Amino acid sequence: MSLALASLGGESMGTTWRVHMAVPHRADLRAHHLRIEGVLDTVVAEMSTWAVDADITRFNRADAGTTHTLPEGFRQVLTCALEIAAASQGAFDPTLGELVGIWGFGANACRPQDIGQPQAVKAAQTRYGWQQVQLTGNQLFQPGGLRLDLSAIAKGYAADAISDALCAQGIGDALVEVGGELRARGCKPDGSAWRIAIEDATPSDEVTTRVIALNAQGVATSGDRWHYNDIQDWRVTHTIDPRSASPVTCQPMSVTVLASSAMRADAWATALRVLGPVEGMAMAEQHALAARFHWLDAGVAHEVMTAAFQPHLVQ
């Protein structure tokens, strides 16, 4: 059967999404578009802290001592988040919801004049930590004051979920992107691999020359090029270091990770961004991750990548 390349796109989760897929000529693209939006709506209803009636919002504001039954997608994401939190020795932590707001980000961002107030940070430090999460099957216990934030993993999961939904409808060749996190499956109609350009840490609109080929993989990049707050002479990045309860303070950097799923790539990219190029590279090699670090030091660009990342480079 002859296949053609079709593209769909839209907005969800506070960002944009786009899907490129190989489909039969005259395929019903409207049906696929509605199916994709349905997947995204489910993720929002379960895991968006911006949605006042989402499952995660209800958990975050719940009374101490209550137990909550999680829908399957939420359970999968939280289970993966806890796994990577342990593997990264806490560099990734899904319980930073309160801190995210204190540093001026997310649905519960504080006022600009209150960003990073020491008293608020100190108080929040007693209420977060991935070890406090008590998840048994699909039952999640609220010990009191624990506020989950899955923004560093949910977009990756959404890309995986869309890819799986399309595959279930017979579309085995697709490249899905949600807010910059991608999941590839199969190949283009001409048989060639899906290729993407990697964003680097350079604060300009220049396109990076690094290109990678994907096949049944997820890829995510974590960096501070687009998400930050300027407070007087201090640039506050959106990536929070759980160890210090404050934004990462190292030089401008981007970290790209390839993994078996976009969900895993998303979380690991955040963890490695927190750790930086030295600790991060050691962690990535320890776990045989395909990872690339790009950063600026005194205006000079640097790049390192793991042995597992190099075979994916096209240029």
Helix content: 25-40%
CATH architecture of the largest domain: Roll
Q: Which class of the largest domain in CATH terms?
A: Alpha Beta
Name of the CATH superfamily of the largest domain: ApbE-like domains
Tell me the count of domains. 3
Termini gap: 32 Å
Structural class: alpha+beta
Number of strands: 17
Q: Mean of the pLDDT scores?
A: 90
Task: Enter the CATH topology name of the largest domain.
Answer: T-fold
How does the overall form come out from the CA principal axes? globular
Biggest sheet, strands in spatial order? 1-2-6-7-10-15-16-17
Keyword list:
7 helices, single chain, globular, 315 residues, 30% helix, three-stranded antiparallel beta sheet, alpha+beta, T-fold, 3 domains, eight-stranded antiparallel beta sheet
Topology of this protein?
Elements: E1 3-12, E2 15-24, H1 29-47, H2 55-60, E3 66-69, H3 72-87, H4 97-102, H5 118-124, E4 134-136, E5 139-142, H6 154-168, E6 174-178, E7 181-185, E8 194-197, E9 211-214, E10 218-223, E11 228-231, E12 234-237, E13 240-241, E14 246-247, E15 253-259, H7 262-286, E16 290-297, E17 300-305
Helix pairs in contact: 1-6, 3-7, 6-7
